[in-house]
């Protein structure tokens, strides 16, 4: 499947060691840390990678390019990734492989119900799981004749990307009176923290999200998250 809606050269054939050679993956993800993990997984697999950090950017990209694979985070700053998945499923021509991803352990059913071909729970760090999720859903002529899947190779993103996410979260948390922003930042921080195995921050984000869902006062939980985020900004050894 060509990368661009314009003329493009034939894609190279995949090999056992680079099974995604010739594949272009569009990653729709607002977290720099999660996106860096996916970038490393793509490069290790031979795939080209493009990034969109919101729905608007993804739709602008798709007006020009048609990727082979699209991985959509379900919680984005300008809306739900589920809406984009539904659009992609109904589009002609259809992107061959559409995968949802989230740090929310209850999100898989929502992604599949929206029409996604599969789901990648965060953290996304296993090369074997990543490659299998894509290859098992690719047309037969786009798969290598033989495959040497790694057994337990894990990808570790640069900790600087985590710091970038913390800076973004701190900026959003500067307006704690904005209920919509609190919902977004609770989801965002929860996913990033789980990807980085930062359990204290993940629990604090879940407490904030739970308070929002149940209509409880959120000032304490928002302040707790903000304090942890600031601590991580001040300590570059956190990841």
From TrEMBL:
Key words, A-Z: Phosphoprotein
One Pfam family hit: Response_reg
Gene3D superfamilies: 3.40.50.2300
Keyword Nuclease: no
GO BP annotations, alphabetical order: phosphorelay signal transduction system
Top-level lineage group: Bacteria
Family annotation (CDD domains): REC (cd00156)
4-aspartylphosphate modified-residue sites: 73
Name of this protein: Response regulator
